[in-house]
Amino acid sequence: MVKQVEMPSGAWGNDAADWQGSSEEWRERMEQAEREADSASQEQAASPLKVVDLANFTTIRAKPTEYIINPFVPRGFVTLLGGHGEIGKSLLGLILGAHVATGQSWAGLQVSQGKVLYLSMEDAGDIAVFRLQLIAEAYCLDPAALIANLTIIDASDAGPLAQEVNVGGIRTLLTTGIAEEVGKLVPAYDLIIIDNASDAFDGDENSRRQVRTFIKSLARWVKGHQGAVMLLVHIDKQAARNGAQGNTYSGSTAWHNSARSRLALTKNGKTEAIELAHEKLNVGRKLEEPLCLEWSETGVLLPISAQARQSAKALADAAHDQDVYHALRAALAAGRTIPTATTGPTTAWHVLQPFPELPDALKDRSGKSRLDAALIRLSRQGLIRQEKYQKDYKTRERWVI
Predict the structure, then answer these.
(1) How far apart (Å, rounded) are the C-alpha atoms in residues 67 and 84?
(2) CB within 8 Å of 37: residues ≥ 6 apart
(3) Do 286 and 278 touch, CB atoms closer than 8 A?
(4) How confident is the model at residue 14 (pLDDT cuts 50, 70, 90)?
(5) CA dist., res. 33 & res. 29, Å (int)
(6) What is the 3-state secondary structure (H, E, C) of 224-269?
(7) Three-state DSSP class for 121?
(8) Domain closes at, from 304, 336, 361
(9) Where are the alpha helices (H) located in 76-122, listed in sequence order?
(10) 331 and 200 in one domain?
(11) Helix, strand and coil in the chain, % to nearest 5
(12) Which of 15, 34, 38, 77 is buried most, with the most CB atoms less than 10 Å from its CB?
């Protein structure tokens, strides 16, 4: 159904001792690196600085940014799609690629049809094909367009695109033969999806210099023909859980700074909904509100409408209200006092935690705000009320039925 290209295994290790080829090949590789460094030095000596002509800036209309997926994926740049393990980012990457291949809009976003290269460095090709079958069925995508415009490369047994090597105590990042092979294919494609950075980048993710070099090398792939790169990246689980105030990436800030657009696929700690947030776009206006996604019965992520989202939230809220009410009754029957305080060491959430009537989803830290909201809704419905009482010569408040 989909073209699959087998890539050769990489031969690079972390240093000269890990090199699997001959010493002569190692020497040739080092000489090549030195020539590249000399060439870069010569270019720098010739000054890469260019004066921009402003003579006609008042009359020339600047060319607006073009997008493959508007506004997620701008042409000519690298877009990061982050998410922690098992959240579905590989699946989402393939979903977006399949929509570009067919030219079908996704979640109400405008999609430009084009050629897509999906570099699967984490999963074998048959897994990608299986996912694609489910995606095509769930979204009713044209199989002929997928065959014509989507290429899947199985690079799960290949080496990285860039690797840190240590020669004489000096650590540097070099592109590999795998990157050279892929680079030859790139000009024929509008969108290159790399799944994922942990397999493609074998360097120090906390090194700004190495990360910046890697991202810029990917951007150079598509500058000439105005294609785009989407790089899938893992993010810290704690950051994914708490939203990280819009900074869901792992490692150096260069991952954020070097990419022009950045997406984050996370689970909302309050609603448990899967959300795709557009956290950065510095070549246009980003999408302000996150998109809400849900799993289909066949295991495909599907966008849901705002109306459906509100309906789902209303159902979840009603279920939480019922659970909290039953837990409250059980606690009161056991002689427990349910404080109305929402902060401090003793709150309703602390008191209700031990009771089996309270579901596990409301017992962890992320469930506290949902429990507090349920208490407010129950109070507004007249099912519970606040009552003042005296303790330790102080007036306090508690929830009663």
Answers:
(1) 26
(2) none
(3) yes
(4) very low
(5) 6
(6) CCCCEEEEEECCCHHHHHHHHHHCCCCCCCHHHHHCCEEEEEEECC
(7) coil
(8) 304
(9) 89-102
(10) no
(11) 40, 25, 35
(12) 77
DSSP 8-state assignment for residue 206: T
Would you tell me how many other CB atoms lie within 10 Å of the CB of residue 109?
17
Task: For 310-327, write each residue's pLDDT tens digit.
Answer: 777 787 889 889 999 999
Q: What percent of the chain has pLDDT over 90?
A: 62
**Structure pTM?**
0.70
Q: Which of 262, 280, 304 is the last residue of a domain?
A: 304
74-106: pLDDT as tens digits: 999 999 999 988 899 999 999 999 999 999 999
Distances from the Cα of 187 to the Cαs of 100, 115, 183, 190, 329, in angstroms? 16, 10, 8, 8, 66
**Over the range 225-241, which residues count as b (16 or more CB within 10 Å of their CB) and which as e?**
eebbbbbbbbbbeebbb
Residues 112-165: tens digit of each pLDDT: 999 999 999 999 999 999 999 999 999 999 999 999 999 999 999 999 999 998
Q: Are 108 and 226 members of one domain?
A: yes
Helical (H) or strand (E) element with 131: helix 125-139
E-strand ranges in 158-202 read: 162-167, 170-175, 191-195, 201-202
The tokens for 139 are 């979204």
- Print the domain residue range for 66: 3-37+56-304
